[in-house]
Protein 1
Amino acid sequence: MRKSVPYILAALLVTAVVLPAAAADTPHPQKPGKWQIKTQMEMPGMPVKIPPVSFEVCVTEEDLKDPKKAVPSDPKSKCDVSDYKIDGNTVTWTINCPKQDTKGTGVITFTENSYTGKMDMTVGEQEMQMKYSGKWLGECTK
């Protein structure tokens, strides 16, 4: 379990990718507001199942305009989001975090008030998958 801790931490840094981002001219399928996000990480060969993580986030119209907002906010992570595409209600991307030796591809499909998705990642030589789900809770409150 101790050997997998760095992988878990790196994956949690990349979790922010599920936050909104969009191509400049394409409307984003996610609506702004307060979202409850659940993530579940799976790693082959992990002796213990990692419990899901749940958190809430306020997504603004401004957030939905910039793919770089999807990168983790930790400036030391220096992740790059590329190949960001919106096709109807589905968003796909590629992420590369050289400092954490992390690469991955992701996909999220939105409905009006929810979404599901996943990101396949490699951290060093360890493969893992993050599964996402989101539920719209209403307007953001300050």
Protein 2
Amino acid sequence: MEVHAHSHTPRKKWTHYLWEFLMLFLAVFCGFLAENKREHIVEHQREKQFMRSLAEDLETDTAELSKAILKTDSTARYADSVLFFLFSYKPGTQVPLKFSTLIGIAGQRLTLINTDRTSAQLKNSGSMRLIRDKEVSDNILRYWKQIDETNISLDRYIIYRDAGRTLIFKLWVMPEIYKRVSPADTIQQMRVIDNDPKKWDELANLIAIGGSIARGPLIKNLEKQRAMAVSLITLIKKEYHLE
């Protein structure tokens, strides 16, 4: 009868299993830390890219705001000239050509184009959470609020400006009509369509209110927005070490 020797695999001690568990845990944990670190690096890079882009947009805004301020100031000054003329003008059959030039500038269309290339991304994609610097994020939010304030005063001006333009077309024949049949340098007077004093007084009211908005809340909001844009550019470049 054959005798078979049975080999027995020695059982591992519990400390061995504990050590394997610790090694596996450390491997997973280190992988998690590495991935978390990588995500933070990527987010910080995106944050800096957003801030660089926003600073560029703000520089464009400051240029647009400067032009808007100059145009708004000329609107207010020419509105005063129009009112001075209307104060002494008695509606008759003609009105001087120069008056059309004055009122054209006094009632010019004022616009402001805010560059929202970066702002739209920050708002719509939830990327504001990437902005870790509280002072920067607070100033960005304040700047956006100021844009709304500026647009409100601009919209108010446009309401009276458009009403004035509508009325003007009913009061006299535009210079462009004469230029089609006469040399431009020979035009001195324009024919009055409606000499009703009440309508001319209505025009004066609309010009006065439009000019008041331009020299008051509108230009103040434009100047405030420009100052905030300049300040925000400086802050972003300082906090994010941008050139």
